[in-house]
Amino acid sequence: xxxxxxxxxxxxxxxxxxxxxxxxxxxxxxxxxxxxxxxxxxxxxxxxxxxxxxxxxxxxxxxxxxxxxxxxxxxxxxxxxxxxxxxxxxxxxxxxxxxxxxxxxxxxxxxxxxxxxx
Length: 118
Hints:
The structure is a single chain. By secondary structure, the protein is mostly helical. It is built from 4 helices and 5 strands, in the order βββββαααα. The N and C termini lie far apart (72 Å). The mean pLDDT is 88. Strand 2 and strand 3 form a beta hairpin. The protein is elongated. It has helices at 52-58, 62-69, 71-74, 76-117; strands at residues 9-11, 15-17, 22-24, 38-40, 48-49. The strands form 2 sheets. A 3-stranded mixed β-sheet has the order 1-4-5. The protein has 2 domains: 7-74, no CATH class; 76-118.
């Protein structure tokens, strides 16, 4: 019997170290985690890892080390822009809902006012 398994995927983003003003690697996996998310790393096309063991092996590569060293220069702004866009989308949706609520209130008040005039 064949089963279709969906594989969740995400982009690996290193952690910012405030003390040293640099980016560092921190495993996105918890110890002994099962059903891990597949992370794609932008250090090299087609580069990915699916568990802690693969992650530890991956971060040792020369290409990945250079990626981390230059992360701030090439990727920080893009990641921050994506986060800002997502936050603005959420805020926009909340404001749309508020606007719709106030429109309904105004309609109800207008209807009441109209009926009071009769």
